[in-house]
Amino acid sequence: MVNQNGNSGMGGKRTEAGARLITVVLDGLRYQGATQWLGYVEHLVESGHAARYKVISELPSLSRPLYEVLLTGTPACENGITSNQVVRLSGEESIFHLAKNAGLITAAAAYHWVSELYNKAPFNPLRDRHQHDEQLPIMHGSFYFEDHYPDSHLFADAEFLRQTYNPDFLYVHSMNIDDAGHRFGGGSKEYEGSVRIVDSILALAVPQWIAAGYTIIITADHGMTVSGQHGGTTPEEREVALYGIGQPFEPGVYEEPIPQLAIAPLMAGLLDFAPSPRMKPTPIIPGLHVPAFGSV
Ligand SMILES: [Zn+2]
């Protein structure tokens, strides 16, 4: 399945293997929650079809600062997105900017803070829920603004964007796991259940994405404590999973933690363009076959 490469005949402009990427960010999913409850995704690992890494999040382990870390590869002390209350456009070059400059089609189904960082700030729900403008970094956007907006609907939004606009880079960002963690605690059956629901959605979506020729990565911004918190330095807050599915990844479990700042340049490599000059030099990521990385 590593290179189905099916060129699904959808009529899009680009069907080359290796230049199309779907990134899934499961907000608030700690590493152990991923490895214990994402049964379908772990099946891909167990059966030799996916790589799993452990990522240590940047600090503070908060959502908006870590969206910026994931998408720009820069730390909060440099990019200035130091808290959830910093509501403005990013001053950095994001993966969306770089992909657009490379002539790729970008799309996102994501929480409205992602729109505020890269398209428009502040977010106006009556204006900004759906955005289609190829001059913006996120050319096709579906942005939700309630933390309890169902993940089932969010993934359906993402599929609509994918099937309608055939993006080269699709960013899918869910919020129900984080929401359940805050409401009921990270040790609650509600938190666990929200993870299992997302897994069942991924079990339907991922095979379609593979068949359409996408490389897929699945990760989280930060984790969650049993008491329903994040923002600090504990392993429950900082340790998240990174799954890699597709030809660039040698399947397996890689125990050596990798820094979260490596994910943006990883996405650049998977999309076959250079990282921004502001992105940090990345360590060798084991099991990754991306020429730009020079990795093993
Ligand atoms: Zn949260």
Automatic annotation (TrEMBL):
Entry-linked InterPro entries: Alkaline_phosphatase_core_sf, Phosphodiest/P_Trfase
Pfam hit, one: Phosphodiest
The organism's place on the tree of life at top rank: Bacteria
Protein name (database record): Nucleotide pyrophosphatase
